[in-house]
Amino acid sequence: MASMSGQTQGGRDWLRAQTKLGRHAARPVVMFGLLNTILAIIQGTCIAAILGDALVIRAPAAAWAIAGFCIAALLRAGLSVASERVSVRNGSAARQRLRLDVMSRLLAAGPSLLRHEHSAALTTTVVDRVDAMDGFFARWLPASVLAIAGPVLVLLAVAAVDWRAALVLGACGLLVPVAQAASGIGAAAASRHQFQALSRLQARFLDRVRGISTIVLSGRAADEAVALAQAANELRRRTMRVLRVAFIASAALDCALALALVVLAIRYGHAAVTHRLNTVPALFVLLMVPEFFAPLRAFSVAYQDRAHATGAAEALATVPPMPVVAPVTAAIRTVTAHGVSITFEHVGFTWDPARGPALEDISFRVPAGETLVLAGPSGAGKSTILEILLGFVSPQTGRVLVNGADLATIVPEALNRMIASIGQRPTIFAGTVRDNIRFAKPDATDKEIEAAARNARVSQFVESLPRGLDTEIGEGGYGLSGGQAQRVAIARAFLKNAPLLLLDEPTAHLDPATEGDVMDSLRRLSVGRTVVMASHAAAVLSLGNRRLDLRDGRVVTARGAA
Amino acid sequence: MSPLYRILLLWRRQWPWLAAGAIVSVASVLTGAALLALAGAHVAVLLMGATAAVGAMLTALGPARVVLRYAERLVTHSATFRALASLRVWFFRRLAARSAGGLGMQRSGDLASRLVADVEALDGLYLRILVPLASAAVLLLVLLAFLVGQGAELWLPCLGAACLFAVSAFVIPGLAARSAQRSGVAVTGANAGLRVAVLDALSGLREVRMFGAEARMAEGVAARDWEAGLAQGRLATRAAFAQAGGFLCAQLAIVLLLLSASSRPVSAVGAVFLLVAAFEATSGLSRAGALAGHAAAAARRVLDAAAPPANAVAEPATPVDLPRSNALRFDGVHFRWAADRPELFDGLTLEVPQGSRVAILGPSGCGKSTLAALLLKITSPSSGRILLGGADLASLSAEDVRSRFGVLSQSTHLFDDTIRANLLLGRPAADEPAIWRALDEAEIGEFVRSLPEGLDTWLGEGGARVSGGQGRRIALARTLLSEAPILVLDEPGAGLDAQTERAFLKTLNDLPSGRTLLLITHRLTGAERLDRIWRLSGGHAIAAAA
């Protein structure tokens, strides 16, 4: 989803908005961090006093200094636990907020997404991309503030005893952000590429796993394993590219720290030679060097989180926004009372310009309570007409009227309530047969579900199973034949009890005996409803009194449907 | 055997890399400790008023430390990723070995979670646990050696400090690992649950829209997310406490030395610096203990999904060579899918001579597809024999058997790839004319030619970019393209309109002789030219007139 070229405007704006949201929550962590630095300064003072006394006058440790050191140590331990817990909570709260937002947007965008994206790739966006934002809120936001405030606090303390040493420290500290910026630009780009490799690996694996039986039976499992190894190696190479650059920043930090220590040691060495050395301040300054660099180190580590967040921001910013809800018009509310009539007026639709139009200038009318059969070879445009009625896609030319109201003005929820649909490949979720039927109406009673199962002839095959309707079935309908899965979908339609019924080749996978049964059920289901059915099976054609023959997206003949 | 240990054994081929990483890491840690200890001693000497030149040792150690540190990070990370990549491939191979019949009750999202997230969680095993443990062990020796070199006044505090170091590097991580065991299991489970919920909602987008289930699905995901957040929070709290414990050990060790600093100040300053370096090098270990709980749970999930299922068809210890002939024979076969399911075959006997064209008819649910599963060694008969060229299938290796069959089943999968790649799955070396011939035979060549990108058209998830009937015919073409001598077509007419179906069945009549055709279907159209027809009924096969 992310564009290969630099950061997009949308991604930047999105990240800015997130920063504003996250800063507030990060405030306690920043506070804890500053307190920690102050306590470290106190501890440094105590150690310097103790060691100074020991070195110069060989005196045992002063009680106040030991006590101060210990109290500060306990407080720091408590602070680190508190800070960690708040950070984790912030990261997890932000993830949950973002995930719900992205998920809702994807659900609102609907099934047309699946024509361009694999569901596994979308899942990567919702799961891994959002997870990648965790560090941004938990670590980066506080670290980016502490990286300035923490070292400044230390510098002030050092300047109070030796302003020249403070200058040295400050100069060495400045090297860190410079090196970070230089390597950070490369790291951000590399992180984007790394994520794409991860996303591709996941989508590929998921797709292969779903078809693993096909792969094994074709004797290609070994080849697929090799391909997976290549993809995994590609991921490793990309990750190492990110890290090679990121580690340079940490190496620069090591250098800056060593440089500061060496310069200060030389400085105090000279002072010692000329006997102008104040032992305690010198010790204090040396002890403060690691404390000065600690927030910078945290910053450097969190810089990776920022790089991941930049990549994630772009992907998340490209997820379609929530649609604006159109005002409900009066016509829609009366729909169910009088049944549903459908009118197509010069409708045209193209999935892919390179393949030519899927529908061209289609016009027809189905009065309320009537059945229209769409006939024609596969690829003629039957499914596209149904997808338009389902609201998955909108006509690009012409318009569709439902009870005289333009389909485009009907809110998706209202449209959903009117329609029950049975597709070519119904999705069966892992779970029991009963749960799968209940999906159509979560508040349905067991009685309603059993009635729907009976009407759709689901009972016929579940009766032979030991647990009946409570038999567990696997993802994608494992354990059910194609015809059985189809009957579960019909049971869903019975349960939903909607006035408009859309059927896409409902008997494609059924043997004649079952097909007859299912046709009986469908005939019963169609009573009093408007039905649009795509089919090429002869038995089904008998159902319709109106028929539209399609070929290459155009109407060839129309009977009773003009 | 503990799951983490088994994972380590699986990394056998990466051991040299892993060992190299550990060695560089230990060297880097030692350099760091030496640098700080020497620098401390040097400063102490200066502060005592004595003059001392910055030793050559010290000047060399600085840059060495920076370089080693960088090398350590690169080598250990690279070694980890190699190990993880090999584990992923191993996982896939094992999964393939157990999934000839499909995923069954396993969820693809859960398996993806195991392959990606759980394997990822194992990176901590080496990077954050094993390598620091190696460093900690070496550092402990160094600390003890340092202890011996000190005067008697410092023995006690140094010994105390070494003990504290051992506590922070070994005892606290061990305790954290034990206490994090349950939250580790919760975290891996919750993460997988989240991924499955998201994938379910997104791959079922059509159904979700049709039944207005958007809010329900989003709620389900949010609930899983909340659970995952809770589990992670619990794990993080344990890690934070372990870390605080390690920190306090370090601070206490410093206090011990400070208390006795006046007796031998120079040594004491050196010791403090050494301690600081030692504790810093292993500061991650305390919290890594909590990670170990997570890693162990992840390892168990990876190993579980890769373990062969209980009802797996056993491979013969010494498979016999495939016989030349491709004649098939079922001999008194009894079969049921599970103990509580009715018996599907009750002494099934039927014959398919080599090169013959045979149809097996029967209503849905009579076991037609099971017949194919038995032939392909996806499952095995409870009694009776199935013979290929006179050899019992039980004595042949599954891979050999499957190489003889080209299969179109009802669950044949179209991959999210090009039409070409999908077809080549059946025969990787096929040339362009062969591909087109297969497409034409499946009555889909014309359609593919009409596509602007032809064979390189992307099919989409499960063939989403073509209609159901078109997808079915592409799958058919893939089966026809395979060079296997026995073709098993399970309901090839499903999803085809009557005209296309008849045309396709006619092209089947022109298959080169010598190829066996096994047509599994619920009805005949009359277009098929067949040598023999078997009708399945009541667990038996009854020969019908051809």
Give a verbal description of the structure.
The complex is a heterodimer of chains A (562) and B (546). Chain A starts with 8 loop residues before the first helix and ends with a strand. The relative contact order of chain A is 0.09. Chain A is elongated, with a radius of gyration of 34 Å. Chain A is 65% helix and 10% strand. In chain A, α17 (512-526) links the parallel β9 and β10 (530-534). In chain A, α1 runs antiparallel to α2 (63-109) and α2 (63-109) packs antiparallel against α3 (119-132). Chain A has two domains: 9-317, ABC transporter transmembrane region fold, CATH 1.20.1560; 330-559, 3-Layer(aba) Sandwich (Rossmann fold), CATH 3.40.50.300. Chain A has 562 residues and is an alpha/beta fold. A six-stranded mixed beta sheet of chain A has the order 6-9-10-3-11-12, sandwiched between helices. In chain B, 60% of the residues lie in helices and 10% in strands. In chain B, the strands form two sheets. A six-stranded mixed beta sheet of chain B has the order 6-7-8-3-9-10, with helices on both faces. The longest helix of chain B has 46 residues, at 214-259. Chain B is elongated, with a radius of gyration of 33 Å. The interface between A and B is large, with 162 and 152 residues.
